[in-house]
Amino acid sequence: MSDTVIQVENLWKEYRLGVINHHTLTRDLQSWWARVRGKEDPNSQIGSVSTESEDRFWALRDVSFEVKQGDILGIIGRNGAGKSTLLKILSQVTAPSKGEVRFKGRIASLLEVGTGFHPELTGRENIFLNGAILGMSKADIRKKLDEIIAFAEIEKFIDTPVKRYSSGMYVRLAFAVAAHLEPEILIIDEVLAVGDAQFQKKCLGKMENVGKEGRTVLFVSHNMAAVLGLCSQGVLLEQGSIASKGKVTDVVSNYLDAISSSSRASIADRTDRKGNQQLTFTSFELKNSDGQIIDNVRLGKSVDLVFKYQSSAAAELRNVHVAIGIHGKFDENLFHLSTSVQGADFEYLPPSGEIICRLPQLPLQPGIYCFNLFSTVGGEISDWLQNAGTIEIETGNLFGSGKLPPPDQGPFLVSHSWHYNT
Amino acid sequence: MNNAHGQKWDKIIRPRTGWFDIHPEELWEYRDLIGLFVWRDFVSIYKQTILGPLWYIIQPLLTTVVFTVIFGKVAKLPTDGLPPFLFYLSGVIAWRYFADCLNNTANTFVGNAHIFGKVYFPRLTVPVSVVISNLIGFGIQFLLFFVILLYYYTYATVIHPQPAIFLLPILVIQMAVLGLGFGIIVSSLTTRYSDLTHLVGFGVQLWMFATPVVYPASSLPEKWKWILLLNPMAPVVEAFRYAFLGTGMINLQNWLISLASTVCILIFGVILFSRVEKSFMDTV
Fold it and tell me: How many CB pairs under 8 A join A and B?
């Protein structure tokens, strides 16, 4: 037990909704003056029993876990699961409501790159400023200065005010500072979702090294590929509590199971949808070329994605655009199907009915794929669902050889032929 | 800090407890950050405006000219027998530093919400660095005052600097601490009462007229003089004038009272500020 460096014990965090900055001095004085004169408070809500009846919301419920030295811990979960709240508490930006967190060693947290950058100052000056905000001493920064500048690849512009930087240079500089912090514990939020692909790779490499040097990293991300690649341990948060913790591969697969089970729920029952609901999708089915409902798609066969919809006004819908974004296991986008790309936006649709998207074949490796569903009516977002449903693809004899390429070589199965010339 | 396993922990994060959970020693740990904030403020002011540091001189000069015309020539307020320009300039410069400290620290939380939401450092570093950066402006303005004072000292005989001149550092610290204290109280309150921000600038203006800046304390009717006892800035401005110009109504007792209230305001401000800094991010 001696190598535990972070111990989170029964952590709770409560947010009060509805009391956010609604006070004004004039109103409070009004209320006070009314009380002094024994009159009714002009600002009290009619029918409200007490002023403390506002909504309370537990963003974290009884969260406990431990992190050992040298671990790279991935914290995953859906939006609103409490990841950001947990990070804010660990970074001391806000205090918990109950519970304790104990640390060993210096902590630096990186919820954002470039916090406190001042546009008028030069790159060099901002390195000092940003470094100090992140907790480095001037002497530390001076020692690392050359290394930081080299990592950011901006030697030529280091004495130019950062307001003249391109956004790529800005992000590189900001990350370079952060990457050269040398705390025993580093807390990182999605900052890797910035910069170009090559620089992202460099950052991931840098973080891996941090782990190898025996320092501890807490990493929050939606990018399951990055989490699997970097982390050894994982914590899955669901509605403020820990749903699963342990080996990162187990935790990630629990997370993905949870996502796909929620997307199996009927579309009509979903409440987490966006848009004005002028058109609302009510169900999703897969049908084969004979019009029969099927559970999964046989590789290489034609399939129809059938969406029943309902118009809110029970009136004819005009100018309807529908798009489907298919993504894979790790939430990575695979491809996009859209009426407008096909020049096939619906000018008229009856008040209710079915919209069908026909795929002559779905050339993907066998497995489960999720999709997002998006629609606009007259240019305004009408119904938008993340993880609207799943499509399972069953293995089949696509190439006529009975063989498929190894799954780790990518999800797409492209038909092709070989020949030779003499 | 031991737990059941007998381990030593470097840092424990707990829910907000009590009113006295304050850690002034953290300011010292983060002294490099304070220094860099000060330097940032100075460099950005210097780079951003065309007039740069010249602005520090133009502002009090213009104010003094306006005061000389309105209160000296038109309203004909007494100036304790001093040349009106010098009288108003001394008041303006002593007052300005305090007022700048208050105004510039009063939006600490709201103005820095973005940074405060992303990274932890002792929040007090921000107002403390503001007070120090304002010192640079004060230094420039004080030099201006000193040059003009020398001119009058050489060519006019009405000026009698006193040994109290050596109290200047204490007076400046008191102005800074008062401005900081009130500023952090206001900034803590603005997290709850957002409309307070609009009142601050106006309130500071009014306060100036309750302080012997445009009139000498000696010109107040006897029955109103007690008001000056309530205003911790009044003895500071009077003492400043007495030290450099040799006029003014200052006694040790009044000054000690104002020193004591300055310390109280600072302590109250720090306690309030520390309380707000822990919950502030949940309310914006």
Answer: 125
The two structure tokens encoding residue B45 = 């002011």
In a 13 Å sphere around the CA of A288, the CA atoms on its Cβ side amount to: 12
A44: its two tokens: 């009290």
Residue A312 has pLDDT above 70, yes or no: yes
| Helix, strand counts (H, E) of chain B | 12, 1
Mean pLDDT value across residues A75-90: 84
CA angle A75, A76, A77 (to 5 degrees): 140
pTM above 0.90, yes or no: no
Taking an 8 Å cut-off on Cβ atoms, the answer to whether B10 and A115 are in contact is: no
Do A25 and B199 lie within an 8 Å CB cutoff?
A: yes
At A320 the three-state DSSP class reads strand
pLDDT of residue A1: 44
Q: Do A102 and B14 touch (CB under 8 A)?
A: no
Interface of B with A (CB under 8 A): 1, 3, 5, 7-16, 30, 32-33, 35-37, 40, 43-44, 47-48, 115-121, 191-196, 199, 278-279, 281-284
Report pLDDT digits (tens) over A268-298: 777 778 888 889 998 888 888 888 888 888 8
Does A112 reach chain B within 8 Å, measured CB to CB?
A: yes
Q: How close, in Å, is residue B163 to chain A by CA atoms?
A: 40
**pLDDT: which is higher, A204 or B167:** B167
Q: What is the pLDDT of residues A220-229, one digit of tens each?
A: 877 777 788 7
* Model pLDDT for residues B15-28, shown as the tens digit of each residue: 876 666 777 788 88
CA distance linking residue B195 with residue B210, whole number of Å:
23
Q: Which residue of A has its CA nearest to B112?
A: A116
Measured CA to CA, the distance from residue A351 to residue A354 in angstroms comes to 10
Q: What share of chain A is helix, strand, coil (3-state, %, to 5)?
A: 25, 35, 40
Contact A217, A184 (CB under 8 A): no
- pLDDT of amino acid A55: 60
Q: Diameter of chain B by CA atoms?
A: 79
Strand partners of residue A241: A238
Q: Any idea what the Cα angle at residue B92 is, between residues B89 and B98, rounded to 5°?
A: 145
